[in-house]
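User: For documentation purposes, I need each entry recorded in a consistent format: the amino acid sequence on its own, followed directly by the corresponding structure tokens. There are two entries in this batch. Please keep commentary to a minimum and don't merge the entries.

Assistant: Recorded as requested. Entry 1:
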Amino acid sequence: IRTATTADGENIARLVNDAFNPERFYIDGDRTNPEKITALFAKGKFLLAEDAGILIGCVYIELRGERGYVGLLGVEPKRQNTGLGSRLMTLAEDECRVAGCHHVDLTMVNLRAPLLAYYKHRGYVEDGTLPFPKEQNPLKVPCHLVKMTKALS
């Protein structure tokens, strides 16, 4: 596990798009691109998991005062359900905790029921909704974002 640099933007975008492939039933096109990933470095950072120099997992962390935000959790499809995503989430939550955050937040699409169950199992609770971002690719079906939060001890 290491902290990403902006030079990793293209590989992060590729991994996220592969990992978010199950979303293609409701959205056209890729989830992100290298430019969007690089722009996130101005506000936060990515933790990367690698195996023999190959990117296999990532998570984005943004510190917002006493609240942290995590997003773009992505694991190479062949390595999903191996615990790598949970390990990355734990590391991200730990980084928020060490930085003085009392809560960590995330958003997810309401159509991804297995992810909702995954985050609830990790101690996150639903905390409202947001409209789906207009800057994202066109939607095939209506959806919205679910806000979730977790208290950090």
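Entry 2:
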Amino acid sequence: VTSLPSISIYVHGTRSHGLEGLKYFGPFQPTCEGFYRYEHDTFLPVSSNAEELAQLVNRKVKPGCLTFLAHSRGGLVARFARKRLEKLGYRGHITIITLGTPHQGTPLINNVEQNVALLFRLGRLSGLGLPALTRLDYILSCLTNINLVPEGISFMAEGSHGLKTLNSLDDESGIECWGAKFDPSGYQSGYGLFFEQALSEILSASDNDLVVPTASALGFGTANPVLGCGHSGYFGEPRVRAA
């Protein structure tokens, strides 16, 4: 009997790219037959990213055992893509592993006047898995009309219509989620003290990984034990690497 192919696809988070996220793995050997990354524009609607991903999988990946390994916003894209693949009649078995995904949203997006420019400026520190900002990027982030939040970002606000729709239609089976409560005594966030304190204050109402509330990251699918890392530290966790 011929075994089914085992394929994994990494789906990156906000304003990031595949290599930026996967570099945190360090040297590792995937146990699957094929390991790929999906590069996409995270300012576009989550549904648009998911449609493109689903079409690529449907055309290029033979039905078998497919795993989406998704960081942050990428987990929402992966969930949408799985729903779309079901409608396309894709016959493979799909599982999703999410790392710090805002399944129930994050307060960082709700309070746009205070927080969106901060998120842009975090890029140089790569704390969100973002590409480094140039000096011009930084200046533009200060001048940007922060009320005009891209649809691909506003989707992650707590209570957003898009999240409510996705959570009401999606199936929690086959989804394994990881979340963290940042422990400053044992971990470095990678953000620097100023940004770490700013993020901690914004999310102070609940446990969080400095970007996504712990309950939100564990809020859809089978929850794994809470980690102590920051939002960009999931790949360095032995339990995550083992999974």
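Summary note for entry 2:
The chain is about 35% helix and 15% strand.
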